[in-house]
Amino acid sequence: MNDNKGEMDNGKNNPLSLYHNLRKSGRLQYILIIFIFILLIASAVFFIINVNRVVTETAISSYQTNELEIVRETARAIQEYVYVQTVVLGRTDISNIEQEVYTKFVDPIRLLKNGDAWIYAPDHIVFDKSADLPTEYWGRSMAEIFALQKKNGASHYEEMTADVTNAREGVGYYVWLPEKGSEIAAWTPVRIGNYTWTIGLSTPLAEILDATGASAQIALFTYIILVSIIIALVLLSIWIVTDMRRRRVEEALVESEELYQTLAESSPDMIYLVDREGIVRYASPRAAQAFGRTPADLIGKRIDAIFPPDVVRHHMNEITGVMTSGQSRQLEVVEPHPDGNHWMSARLSPVKDAEGNVTGILGISTDITDRKRAEEATRESEEKYRLLFEQAGDCILIFEAEGENRGKILAANSAAAQMHGYSIEEMLTKNIADLDSPKSRTAVPDRFIQIFNNQRLTGEATHIRKDGTEFPIDINAGLLTLGTKKYILAIDRDFSLRKQQEKALKIANQKLQLMNIVAWHDIQNKITGLRGYVELSQDMVENEKVKAYLKTEEDILRVIDRQIQYTREYQQIGVQASQWVNIRETIKNVLMYKTLGPIKALVDISDLEIYCDPIIERVFSHLIDNTLQHGQTATEIRINCHETAEGLMLVYEDNGVGVPDRKKPNLFTPGVAKFSGFFMFFIHDLLEISDMSIAETGEPGKGARFEITVPKGMWRMKEVNA
To answer: Helices 583-592 and 617-630 meet at what angle, rounded to 10?
Structure first.
């Protein structure tokens, strides 16, 4: 109980708690005053509305009484007039009598500027035929006319039309046109023998209010109330502003104290106050936490009870320097913490009394250990990349990507300098175009365009050394963005040795090809001679058994001859380097030398080019031969292509008998297929050497379908000039 009471007492005496209580009570006071003011305004509005209603109702009631007296007097006069005309004078032209009544008695009793006077029989309206009344209203009752007018906004007429139809007296209002507003009306019937009419007066409400002074009275009441509200609002605003200013002045010190205390308590930095003797007078929670303590553990203690002697000496020297000079200092120090040493960035500022004497220092320390470690990691990383750049075996260049110095070399490694015969200093005076041979230099602008289109530049070029000799290089370059500046990073490799090896391999292939050709011709000649001797021997022997042997030998020689012919096809594979081949033109050339007969060829592949062995025309030649020899019922060949996720699908298909399912697994195995000899095997190998593959996916009985898969990067659509 005592502890709770102490807490309550502390809460009452705490300036910050008192400040909060005062602020809350002040807010409540403002809310209550504003609420009362709103109630007063609501009451005033309610009063205005009621005054408006009472005045309007009074004016309407009085006016309707006058209207009713007028129509009654008019009705008596009309009754006498009609009686004389019909009974005394014996007239029967009721229509003319109605017109006379309208002109002499009804039309003259109109009230105010826009008032109206009217007369209705139960089934039709009586009107001045010289007036501009719409013909659609002629001969109609009041109820029918208002029903037609409803589409134009007529309303509140039902009670009046019912009274007129049933010849009853009454008062009320109706709306003929919305823009005219409500019209206050009074009506009374006139009966003479078998004839009945109803005479009425109506006047717009707005004119009635103006004529009776009700509008002015309502406006006066409204003006008085509004002026009173405005005056009260101004006075209330002045009082609230004055009171708020007073409260701000009174609460400024408390608010400032709370702000600084909040900043100190919540700051991630360590904040502390030390006096001239080195005694800690204040320590923020973050400062105490760094040493595994609470602020109460530090406040009142000397710093030599917190830090080791060498750290104390350094701190006291800095504190003494600030107190002596009266100037702030910024320093970075290493301090021992429970979890190890930490780098701290500290700012020490002098604290002065009213006379300007330095009484202590205010310290704000930030733990920069992570930053220091990051800086060290960055230095290590930079050192690694520097070593990689300098010791790389390939040529590495960084040069300007844009501006008037585009292409100027900004950095070059030792391998780049050695490769081109320059020193690194000389390389930094060059433009990238200076390193290209005259022929290769013409492509430099296109290379920049490709790189600026976010495309990786790869390919070959020819560079020139300081001594004028040229050498081939592989290029691998791309855009390098550092901040807002763009550069180009290029890694080049001298492949002179590879060129020499390729040349040597080409010569070896040519020699091997020559040897193959000579050997092929020798074997072909020997087989031809041997087949001739076998044929002669068949004519010279009579023994049927010997003839059978000779016939078998001839068949074996024919197979050998055919297989030798196949090897001639293989001699051409890989002889020429791969190149871009226009497939549509290739197929067109193949078809020119084929006799298709009734078979129609449809080629739909646009200007497709494939990077492959130039003898790819043999693929289409053999596929067409397959259709001609084995398609049987084929009447059409279709060749088309479409893009796939893997690259491009090139399709050859016919509508012949197709390939039986049992033969499909071994279709591309040499000597197995019904297809002539090794041609399927040859097609498979020729495509495989260019990284393409082939598969037969047709349905037996509906035709053969060969799908050739071309990987990405190995095909393109040739651009056609408009």
So the answer is: 50
Q: Token pair for residue 708?
A: 């050739």
C-alpha span between 627 and 656 (Å, rounded): 7
Rg of the chain, C-alpha, whole Å: 57
Quick: pLDDT tens for 705-714: 999 999 988 9
CA angle 719, 721, 722 (to 5 degrees): 130
Phi-psi region of 677 (alpha: psi -120 to 50; beta: other; left: phi over 0): left
CA-based torsion, 595, 601, 607, 613: positive or negative? negative
Contacts with 400 (C-beta within 8 Å, 6 or more apart), sequence order: 406, 407, 408, 410, 487, 488
- Residue 582 DSSP SS3: strand
DSSP string over 117-178: EEEEETTEEE--TTS---GGGTT--HHHHHHHHGGGT-BS-HHHHHHHHTT--EEEEEESST
Q: Buried (b) or exposed (e) across 59-90, using 16+ Cβ within 10 A?
A: bbeebbeebbebbeebbebbeebbeebbeeee
**Contact criterion met (CB below 8 Å) for 638 and 647:** no
Quote the crossing angle between the two packed helices 544-571 and 496-540, to the nearest 10°.
Answer: 160
Q: What is the pTM of this model?
A: 0.35
Q: What's the chain's length in residues?
A: 722
Token pair 């004839």 is found at 195
Pairing of strands 600-604, 636-643: parallel
* 218: CB partners within 8 A, 6+ apart: 51, 52, 55, 56, 209
Helix (H) or strand (E) holding 553: helix 544-571
pLDDT digits (tens, 9 = 90+) for 115-135: 899 999 888 888 766 666 788
Q: Are strands 170-175 and 358-367 parallel, antiparallel or unpaired?
A: unpaired
Q: C-alpha angle 308/309/311, rounded to 5°?
A: 70
- Using one digit for the tens of pLDDT, what is the confidence trace for 431-489? 989 999 998 888 888 888 888 888 888 888 999 999 998 998 888 999 888 888 889 99
Contact criterion met (CB below 8 Å) for 416 and 427 = yes
Q: What is the DSSP letter of 89?
A: S
Q: Which 3 state secondary structure label does DSSP give 632? A: coil
**Binning pLDDT at 50, 70 and 90, where does residue 694 land?**
very high
- Summarised one tens digit per residue, pLDDT across range 556-595 is 777 676 666 556 555 555 567 788 999 999 999 889 888 8
Q: What is the DSSP letter of 84?
A: I
From CA 457, how far away is CA 451, in angstroms rounded? 6
- Residue 473 main-chain phi, psi, to 5 deg: -135, 150
Query: How would DSSP label each residue in 662-699?
Result: GGGGGTTSTTTSSSSTTHHHHHHHHHHTTT-EEEE-PP
Residue scoring higher pLDDT (544 or 513):
544
Tokens matching residue 232: 């009260």
Task: Extract the tokens encoding 108.
Answer: 């003259």
pLDDT tier at 161, thresholds 50, 70, 90: very high
Q: What is 371-430 written as a DSSP string? A: HHHHHHHHHHHHHHHHHHHHH-SSEEEEEE-SSTTTTBEEEE-HHHHHHHT--HHHHTT-
- Residue 578, classed as helix, strand or coil, is coil
279: β partners = 302
∠ CA 345-349-353, rounded to 5°: 160
C-alpha 198/C-alpha 68 separation (Å) is 12
What whole-number percentage of the chain has pLDDT above 70?
Answer: 86
* DSSP result, 259-314: HHHHHHHH-SSEEEEEETTSBEEEE-HHHHHHTTS-HHHHTT-BGGGTS-HHHHHH
Token representation of residue 491: 């890694």
